[in-house]
Amino acid sequence: MTVHTSWRRRAALSTVALACCASALAGLPAGASAAPSPTGSTAAAATFTDDFNGAAGSAVDGSKWQIETGDNVNNHERQYYTSGNNNAALDGQGNLVITARKENPGNYQCWYGRCEYTSARLNTSGKFTQTYGHVEARMKVPRGQGMWPAFWILGADIGNVGWPQSGEIDVMENVGFEPGTVHGTLHGPGYSGSGGIGAGYTLPGGEAFSDKFHTFAVDWSPNKVTWSVDGNVYQTRTPADLGGKQWVFDKPFFLILNLAVGGYWPGDPDGSTSFPQQLVVDYVHVTTNN
Ligand SMILES: [Ca+2]
Protein backbone atom coordinates (compact mmCIF):
# COMPACT_ATOMS: atom_id res chain seq x y z
CA MET A 1 0.00 0.00 0.00
CA THR A 2 0.95 3.59 -0.23
CA VAL A 3 -0.70 6.41 1.60
CA HIS A 4 -3.36 8.94 0.74
CA THR A 5 -2.33 12.38 -0.40
CA SER A 6 -4.50 13.71 2.40
CA TRP A 7 -2.59 12.02 5.18
CA ARG A 8 -1.10 15.25 6.45
CA ARG A 9 -4.57 16.66 6.95
CA ARG A 10 -5.89 13.44 8.45
CA ALA A 11 -3.07 13.21 10.90
CA ALA A 12 -3.64 16.78 11.97
CA LEU A 13 -7.26 15.97 12.63
CA SER A 14 -6.36 12.98 14.74
CA THR A 15 -5.98 14.89 17.93
CA VAL A 16 -7.96 12.46 20.04
CA ALA A 17 -4.87 10.97 21.59
CA LEU A 18 -6.44 8.35 23.79
CA ALA A 19 -4.67 6.61 26.59
CA CYS A 20 -5.17 3.48 24.60
CA CYS A 21 -2.52 1.27 25.98
CA ALA A 22 -3.19 1.96 29.60
CA SER A 23 -6.86 1.09 29.25
CA ALA A 24 -6.11 -1.97 27.15
CA LEU A 25 -3.69 -3.23 29.73
CA ALA A 26 -6.14 -2.54 32.50
CA GLY A 27 -8.50 -4.98 30.81
CA LEU A 28 -6.08 -7.84 30.95
CA PRO A 29 -6.88 -10.79 33.15
CA ALA A 30 -4.91 -10.80 36.35
CA GLY A 31 -1.50 -12.21 35.79
CA ALA A 32 -1.66 -11.87 32.02
CA SER A 33 1.17 -9.39 31.92
CA ALA A 34 4.74 -9.97 32.91
CA ALA A 35 4.16 -13.56 33.94
CA PRO A 36 7.34 -15.55 33.71
CA SER A 37 7.37 -17.98 30.81
CA PRO A 38 8.88 -21.45 31.00
CA THR A 39 12.00 -20.12 29.32
CA GLY A 40 12.41 -17.51 32.02
CA SER A 41 11.66 -14.58 29.74
CA THR A 42 8.72 -12.25 30.24
CA ALA A 43 5.45 -13.26 28.61
CA ALA A 44 3.97 -11.06 25.96
CA ALA A 45 1.19 -8.73 27.05
CA ALA A 46 -1.82 -7.90 24.91
CA THR A 47 -1.86 -4.23 23.92
CA PHE A 48 -4.54 -4.18 21.21
CA THR A 49 -7.28 -6.76 20.81
CA ASP A 50 -10.27 -6.61 18.53
CA ASP A 51 -12.10 -9.91 18.05
CA PHE A 52 -14.95 -8.16 16.24
CA ASN A 53 -17.66 -9.54 18.47
CA GLY A 54 -20.87 -7.59 18.17
CA ALA A 55 -24.25 -7.44 16.55
CA ALA A 56 -24.56 -8.19 12.86
CA GLY A 57 -24.44 -5.05 10.80
CA SER A 58 -22.88 -2.86 13.43
CA ALA A 59 -19.93 -0.63 12.69
CA VAL A 60 -16.48 -1.20 14.12
CA ASP A 61 -15.64 -0.03 17.63
CA GLY A 62 -14.97 3.67 17.28
CA SER A 63 -12.72 3.67 20.33
CA LYS A 64 -10.33 1.40 18.42
CA TRP A 65 -10.71 2.35 14.78
CA GLN A 66 -11.24 5.41 12.68
CA ILE A 67 -12.68 5.07 9.22
CA GLU A 68 -10.89 6.75 6.35
CA THR A 69 -13.03 8.05 3.51
CA GLY A 70 -12.30 9.16 -0.02
CA ASP A 71 -10.36 7.87 -2.97
CA ASN A 72 -6.66 7.15 -3.50
CA VAL A 73 -5.07 8.55 -6.62
CA ASN A 74 -1.55 7.61 -5.51
CA ASN A 75 -2.06 3.94 -6.30
CA HIS A 76 -4.73 4.61 -8.95
CA GLU A 77 -7.17 2.60 -6.83
CA ARG A 78 -10.70 2.61 -8.23
CA GLN A 79 -12.78 2.43 -5.04
CA TYR A 80 -14.27 5.12 -2.83
CA TYR A 81 -13.85 4.40 0.88
CA THR A 82 -17.11 5.06 2.71
CA SER A 83 -17.92 5.86 6.32
CA GLY A 84 -20.02 4.15 8.95
CA ASN A 85 -21.04 0.55 8.39
CA ASN A 86 -21.72 0.82 4.67
CA ASN A 87 -18.66 -1.20 3.67
CA ALA A 88 -17.21 -2.29 7.01
CA ALA A 89 -19.51 -4.10 9.42
CA LEU A 90 -19.51 -6.91 11.93
CA ASP A 91 -21.22 -10.09 10.80
CA GLY A 92 -22.57 -11.12 14.21
CA GLN A 93 -20.40 -14.23 14.15
CA GLY A 94 -17.22 -12.65 15.42
CA ASN A 95 -15.88 -11.20 12.21
CA LEU A 96 -15.36 -7.83 10.63
CA VAL A 97 -16.38 -7.91 6.97
CA ILE A 98 -15.01 -5.28 4.61
CA THR A 99 -17.11 -5.45 1.47
CA ALA A 100 -16.17 -4.08 -1.94
CA ARG A 101 -19.20 -3.37 -4.09
CA LYS A 102 -19.66 -2.31 -7.66
CA GLU A 103 -21.95 0.60 -6.92
CA ASN A 104 -21.96 4.29 -6.20
CA PRO A 105 -25.11 5.19 -4.28
CA GLY A 106 -23.60 8.42 -2.98
CA ASN A 107 -22.50 9.71 -6.38
CA TYR A 108 -18.95 9.76 -5.05
CA GLN A 109 -16.33 11.39 -7.25
CA CYS A 110 -12.92 9.78 -7.69
CA TRP A 111 -9.68 10.91 -9.31
CA TYR A 112 -10.77 9.32 -12.59
CA GLY A 113 -14.38 10.57 -12.55
CA ARG A 114 -17.49 9.01 -11.04
CA CYS A 115 -16.36 6.24 -8.69
CA GLU A 116 -17.17 2.72 -9.83
CA TYR A 117 -16.76 0.87 -6.53
CA THR A 118 -17.12 1.35 -2.79
CA SER A 119 -15.07 -0.28 -0.05
CA ALA A 120 -13.58 0.53 3.36
CA ARG A 121 -10.30 1.38 5.05
CA LEU A 122 -9.80 1.48 8.82
CA ASN A 123 -6.88 2.65 10.92
CA THR A 124 -5.95 3.17 14.55
CA SER A 125 -4.25 6.55 14.13
CA GLY A 126 -4.71 8.62 17.26
CA LYS A 127 -6.19 5.62 19.06
CA PHE A 128 -3.49 2.96 19.18
CA THR A 129 0.19 2.99 18.32
CA GLN A 130 3.03 0.74 19.34
CA THR A 131 6.76 0.38 18.88
CA TYR A 132 7.84 -3.27 18.36
CA GLY A 133 5.87 -6.37 19.27
CA HIS A 134 3.80 -9.05 17.58
CA VAL A 135 1.16 -7.79 15.16
CA GLU A 136 -1.27 -10.39 13.86
CA ALA A 137 -4.57 -10.69 12.01
CA ARG A 138 -6.58 -13.76 11.07
CA MET A 139 -8.34 -13.16 7.80
CA LYS A 140 -9.96 -14.69 4.76
CA VAL A 141 -9.24 -12.66 1.66
CA PRO A 142 -11.47 -12.07 -1.36
CA ARG A 143 -10.71 -13.54 -4.75
CA GLY A 144 -10.80 -11.87 -8.13
CA GLN A 145 -8.84 -9.79 -10.56
CA GLY A 146 -8.37 -6.29 -9.16
CA MET A 147 -8.78 -7.20 -5.49
CA TRP A 148 -6.11 -5.81 -3.18
CA PRO A 149 -6.66 -6.56 0.53
CA ALA A 150 -4.01 -5.39 2.97
CA PHE A 151 -3.09 -5.40 6.64
CA TRP A 152 -0.28 -2.95 7.34
CA ILE A 153 1.21 -0.51 9.82
CA LEU A 154 2.39 3.04 9.26
CA GLY A 155 4.72 5.35 11.21
CA ALA A 156 2.63 7.58 13.46
CA ASP A 157 4.80 10.61 12.64
CA ILE A 158 3.58 10.61 9.05
CA GLY A 159 1.77 13.90 9.59
CA ASN A 160 5.09 15.55 10.39
CA VAL A 161 7.68 13.78 8.28
CA GLY A 162 5.52 12.52 5.39
CA TRP A 163 5.64 9.22 3.54
CA PRO A 164 7.87 7.24 3.08
CA GLN A 165 10.05 8.83 5.78
CA SER A 166 7.35 7.67 8.21
CA GLY A 167 8.10 4.05 7.38
CA GLU A 168 5.55 1.41 6.44
CA ILE A 169 5.46 -2.30 7.23
CA ASP A 170 3.06 -4.31 5.10
CA VAL A 171 2.16 -7.33 7.19
CA MET A 172 0.09 -8.80 4.36
CA GLU A 173 -0.90 -7.76 0.88
CA ASN A 174 -2.56 -9.91 -1.74
CA VAL A 175 -3.31 -9.00 -5.33
CA GLY A 176 -6.06 -10.82 -7.15
CA PHE A 177 -3.93 -12.19 -9.97
CA GLU A 178 -1.88 -14.13 -7.41
CA PRO A 179 -4.55 -16.00 -5.44
CA GLY A 180 -2.04 -18.27 -3.70
CA THR A 181 0.56 -15.66 -2.73
CA VAL A 182 0.83 -12.87 -0.16
CA HIS A 183 3.57 -10.28 0.22
CA GLY A 184 5.30 -8.68 3.19
CA THR A 185 7.18 -5.46 2.54
CA LEU A 186 9.13 -2.62 4.15
CA HIS A 187 8.85 0.90 2.76
CA GLY A 188 11.06 3.80 3.79
CA PRO A 189 13.18 6.62 2.38
CA GLY A 190 14.82 5.36 -0.81
CA TYR A 191 12.93 2.06 -0.76
CA SER A 192 9.25 2.81 -1.25
CA GLY A 193 6.46 1.97 -3.65
CA SER A 194 7.68 -0.57 -6.19
CA GLY A 195 11.14 -0.22 -4.60
CA GLY A 196 9.92 -1.60 -1.29
CA ILE A 197 11.94 -4.42 0.24
CA GLY A 198 9.95 -7.59 0.68
CA ALA A 199 9.15 -11.16 -0.19
CA GLY A 200 6.20 -13.35 -1.01
CA TYR A 201 4.80 -16.47 0.58
CA THR A 202 2.95 -18.98 -1.57
CA LEU A 203 0.63 -21.66 -0.27
CA PRO A 204 1.51 -25.24 -1.21
CA GLY A 205 -0.52 -27.38 -3.54
CA GLY A 206 -2.13 -24.61 -5.52
CA GLU A 207 -4.29 -23.46 -2.63
CA ALA A 208 -5.78 -19.97 -2.73
CA PHE A 209 -5.76 -17.66 0.27
CA SER A 210 -9.45 -17.04 -0.30
CA ASP A 211 -10.22 -20.71 0.40
CA LYS A 212 -10.03 -20.31 4.18
CA PHE A 213 -8.77 -18.19 7.07
CA HIS A 214 -5.04 -17.70 7.60
CA THR A 215 -3.01 -15.80 10.16
CA PHE A 216 -0.65 -13.10 9.01
CA ALA A 217 1.89 -11.64 11.41
CA VAL A 218 5.06 -9.70 11.93
CA ASP A 219 7.40 -9.97 14.86
CA TRP A 220 9.03 -6.58 15.19
CA SER A 221 11.97 -5.80 17.42
CA PRO A 222 14.85 -3.32 17.35
CA ASN A 223 16.57 -3.69 13.96
CA LYS A 224 14.53 -6.70 12.90
CA VAL A 225 11.17 -7.51 11.33
CA THR A 226 10.08 -11.10 10.67
CA TRP A 227 6.99 -12.07 8.65
CA SER A 228 4.96 -15.24 8.99
CA VAL A 229 1.86 -16.93 7.60
CA ASP A 230 0.13 -19.42 9.88
CA GLY A 231 3.26 -19.37 12.00
CA ASN A 232 5.57 -20.18 9.08
CA VAL A 233 8.32 -17.58 8.99
CA TYR A 234 9.14 -16.63 5.39
CA GLN A 235 11.14 -13.44 5.64
CA THR A 236 13.37 -11.55 8.06
CA ARG A 237 14.68 -8.05 7.39
CA THR A 238 17.31 -6.00 9.21
CA PRO A 239 19.15 -2.74 8.46
CA ALA A 240 21.72 -4.84 6.58
CA ASP A 241 19.10 -5.29 3.83
CA LEU A 242 18.83 -1.55 3.17
CA GLY A 243 22.16 -0.92 1.47
CA GLY A 244 22.95 1.96 3.77
CA LYS A 245 19.52 3.55 3.59
CA GLN A 246 17.78 4.63 6.78
CA TRP A 247 15.96 2.11 8.98
CA VAL A 248 12.83 3.98 10.09
CA PHE A 249 11.18 1.31 12.25
CA ASP A 250 12.20 2.27 15.77
CA LYS A 251 9.19 4.42 16.66
CA PRO A 252 5.42 4.12 17.13
CA PHE A 253 3.28 2.79 14.27
CA PHE A 254 -0.50 2.47 13.90
CA LEU A 255 -2.57 -0.26 12.20
CA ILE A 256 -4.46 -0.19 8.90
CA LEU A 257 -6.89 -2.66 7.33
CA ASN A 258 -8.31 -2.09 3.88
CA LEU A 259 -9.69 -3.65 0.74
CA ALA A 260 -8.66 -1.71 -2.35
CA VAL A 261 -10.18 -2.29 -5.77
CA GLY A 262 -7.87 -1.85 -8.73
CA GLY A 263 -4.70 0.14 -8.98
CA TYR A 264 -1.25 0.01 -10.48
CA TRP A 265 -0.20 -3.20 -8.76
CA PRO A 266 -3.29 -5.44 -8.92
CA GLY A 267 -4.63 -3.96 -12.14
CA ASP A 268 -8.32 -3.18 -12.43
CA PRO A 269 -11.22 -5.61 -12.17
CA ASP A 270 -12.29 -7.16 -15.44
CA GLY A 271 -15.16 -9.25 -16.76
CA SER A 272 -14.02 -12.18 -14.64
CA THR A 273 -14.38 -10.29 -11.36
CA SER A 274 -17.57 -10.85 -9.43
CA PHE A 275 -19.00 -8.41 -6.86
CA PRO A 276 -19.48 -8.00 -3.99
CA GLN A 277 -16.12 -9.17 -2.65
CA GLN A 278 -15.27 -9.57 1.03
CA LEU A 279 -12.25 -9.35 3.28
CA VAL A 280 -13.32 -11.23 6.43
CA VAL A 281 -11.29 -10.48 9.57
CA ASP A 282 -11.63 -12.76 12.57
CA TYR A 283 -9.34 -10.70 14.78
CA VAL A 284 -6.51 -8.22 15.08
CA HIS A 285 -4.19 -8.85 18.00
CA VAL A 286 -1.11 -6.92 19.03
CA THR A 287 1.13 -7.91 21.91
CA THR A 288 4.42 -6.78 23.29
CA ASN A 289 7.48 -8.83 22.55
CA ASN A 290 8.35 -11.62 24.94
CA1 LIG B 1 -13.37 -12.95 15.95
TrEMBL record:
Spans traversing the lipid bilayer: none
CDD domains: GH16_laminarinase_like
Chain ranges of the GH16 domain: 30-290
Leader sequence segment: 1-26
Recorded superkingdom: Bacteria
Alphabetized GO MF terms: hydrolase activity
Keywords: Hydrolase, Signal
InterPro entries: Beta-glucanase-like (IPR000757), ConA-like_dom_sf (IPR013320), Glycosyl_Hydrlase_16 (IPR050546), TAT_signal (IPR006311)
One of the Pfam families matching this protein, by short name: Glyco_hydro_16
Coiled coil: none
Family: Belongs to the glycosyl hydrolase 16 family.
Name of the protein in question: Glycoside hydrolase family 16 protein
Lineage: Bacteria, Bacillati, Actinomycetota, Actinomycetes, Kitasatosporales
